[in-house]
């Protein structure tokens, strides 16, 4: 089995506990865990050799050799077979209650994820809309507050293109600060949000890649650039007489 934090398989000589179960039970690597199997009145003690990352089937994993060496009787309830085993032999075996095909499980998983994609796309769309609204409002507020300063700069000889460049630089700086603070806070929020849906039976983990971060950064950069261009064109509408009125 794969899924350990160090990307190694389950080894002999100990028991491996899933991450979610270990968190809820307060189990740590190196401790001794007492196990009482189903329909077995005897308890067995094993050293916790590692913590397994597993979204489903929360509990513990152990090699059959390790369990039998401790005096237990290995009685498997589920078998994983390869393609060399005939399907007819499996279905005709009276000792087998049900057969689950791996491809069917994968299809069900993909169908479940596909059904959620519309919700994810809606969240992404509202997030981009929020970025546009926030950047536009901040830019507009900053423009109104500094309109007199821009008018003064025009009087001093600054062209409208220079003023547009200043406005763009200010908005891009605000976007950069938000990007620097937003990525670590976003990752933290996603992990906390996903952890709320985890139970004793299933664990949801946040899956973040560099590709996702790059795509998110590109989307924010594009929306920020468009909003900045819209704000910067407001410099052409400055009425210097009204803006400088009352200046002593």
From TrEMBL:
Membrane topology of this protein: Multi-pass membrane protein
Any single GO CC term annotated in Swiss-Prot or TrEMBL for this entry: plasma membrane
Key words of the record: Cell membrane, Membrane, Transmembrane, Transmembrane helix
Primary residence: membrane
Domain spans labelled ABC3 transporter permease C-terminal: 122-233
Protein's UniProt keywords contain Transmembrane helix: yes
Protein's recorded name: ABC transporter permease protein
Taxonomic lineage from the root: Bacteria, Bacillati, Bacillota, Bacilli, Lactobacillales
